[in-house]
Amino acid sequence: MFIVYSLMLVFGLIFLSLNPKDSKYRWICFALFTCVIGGLVAHYVKETFGSNMLPKEYFKSSSVKYLPLYLLDTYSFYFFPYSFLMFSMTHALSANAFFLKHKRKIYLIFLMPIILFYLIFNVYPKVNPSLIIIVVWAGIYIILSNSFLIYSYIKADIKAEALIVCITLIPGTSLTVYTDYILVLCKNFSIWNYHDLIAFVSVLIAIFLAMKHGIMGIKIKIEKKDIETSMKPAYPGISIINHSLKSEISKISMCADSIQENNITQNDIIEKSVIIIRNSLSHLSNLMNRTMKNTRDIILSKKLVSLKDIIDSAINLNEIDIKQASIDIFKNYDSNIQLLCDETHTIEVINNVLRNSIEAIGENGEIRVSTGTSKKFIFIKIQDTGIGIPSNKISSVILPFFTTKNKDSNFGLGLSYCYNVMKKHNGFLEISSNVGHGTSVSLYFPIHRKKYIGK
Fold this sequence. Notes:
The protein is of the alpha+beta class. Helix content is 62%, strand content 10%. The longest helix is centred in the middle third of the chain and has 28 residues, at 234-261.
């Protein structure tokens, strides 16, 4: 029995080690931990009091004898549905801008019932839980959790991976509603004879699927996993370098053609072309040096910079393409805003968004760049009048290597990189689009007013 629960803890710790900063992995680790606590309590109760009933003292005693047991039991009772719901929600809504912006408030809202339970239902000197309320609440949370998992499967581009998560989690959690909540409400604890067996079968299923297909980044095959984990983080860096190289080489080629085609005495054309070439080479050099040195991860080197200057730098990198496509740029940003960020990566993020806008517009359109501040964020908003993105594709544009079949559709390789850079800044991307009317991309950076904004 202890081997089974130890394996569950190991799974939780492995999930957490994949990316400790990702709330999805923290929540699944938390949920597995509460499940282990619940299983151990159930095993102890079965061995101590028998499998068919609990003593009256467990709920009615005025002594503190059973208080630790009750607290552990309620911890599992309350926090398993909550942590599992938060995991499912975070997993399903990882690309939802509203959720990303307000997720801490959402976490707190769903925590409120647990706080009320501890305040309303006496723990000492007399334990007095309302099992009906708790069971209904837990059932709603777990049903919502499984609904989010099903939603993530429906919306997923890679159906097989999402299906494996559903197969691993939905049957076990659905059975938990019956065994650990409904039967407890009926004062029927006979099912606890099979509690360890249920946990054992669930772990076996998880291990089998992890060996066969992999679950949320875990694949039990050490040699293959080591190769995959070494290569996977390098793909976005390599891809973005390739993406940038093509773009900047194209600009350099255009400048060379411009110099060759125009009269050599036109010094203004030559001088301007040389400046653009130097800017492109400088930008590429910085990007390649920074990215190639950190292929396993995006490492930020933050400093205080003018938001206006980094936006203008990104716009200047695209000046030739903007003019050739007859695109009008409208700027509306505060020259006094300063931002603590990685200058090279931030310029490249803005550059990628602008490139996508230019490609989406084609010819004769508008790009509007504006900035602003809210209570917690500094934001850069880039709007275009391009072809737009279908609503069923918006959640996928930040996936590595995601492209649409039509080459004129915007947002290819670049947005995966942009998403990772913004995440490293503890910020996020917000994307909205209307097919045929254009797309809006907002970049949100966390703000500390004493450091970030000066006038």
